[in-house]
Structure formats: structure tokens, C-alpha cells
Structure to design on (88 residues):
């Protein structure tokens, strides 16, 4: 839902408006003299929830026997590689 507020209301309640946008997902159209001049919206969503990650992992196909062998090969290569030293 979009709430229409005046620029004066925004100025007087800026912290509250920003918190409502961020934490409650509310959107606001800021008006001056009845004309829309700006919007305040929640930020774009970043990342995923643990539940979403769990669902994604559950949808993956099972690993085959070759996967374990590939992991062991990668581990042996990494064990045999020297860690580079930073120059002095």
C-alpha cells in the first residue's frame, strides 16, 4: 500500500517514515502543493532467508559417486599446493 504525505509531514516525521519503509515495507509518495515530487520505498531485498536457502538445497539433485571422488581430488591438490608468502 502506498501512503501519500506532504513534504511537511515528511520533514516532521522523517525518522518514523524511514523506519516504516525499512522495517514494515511501507511506501510513501511525497507531495508538495498536491503534486507528487518523490517516493520513499523499502530498499531492494538483499540475500535470502534461511528457509529459502533450505528449500533451494532440498531441490538440488542428489550427488553421485563421482562427486565424492572429485572432492577428494580437489582436496589432494589443495593439500599439495604451497601457500604463497607475502613479500617482505
Amino acid at each position: 500500500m502506498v501512503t501519500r504525505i506532504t513534504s511537511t509531514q515528511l520533514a516532521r516525521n522523517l525518522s518514523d517514515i524511514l523506519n516504516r519503509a525499512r522495517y514494515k515495507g511501507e511506501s510513501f509518495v511525497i507531495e508538495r502543493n498536491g503534486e507528487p515530487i518523490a517516493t520513499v520505498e523499502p530498499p531492494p531485498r538483499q540475500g535470502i532467508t534461511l528457509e529459502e536457502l533450505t528449500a533451494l538445497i532440498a531441490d538440488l539433485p542428489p550427488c553421485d559417486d563421482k562427486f565424492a571422488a572429485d572432492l577428494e581430488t580437489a582436496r589432494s591438490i589443495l593439500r599439495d599446493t604451497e601457500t604463497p608468502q607475502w613479500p617482505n
Observations:
- Helices lie at 7-12, 14-24, 50-58, 65-80.
- The beta strands are 2-6, 27-32, 35-40.
- The first helix runs from residue 7 to 12.
- The radius of gyration is 26 Å.
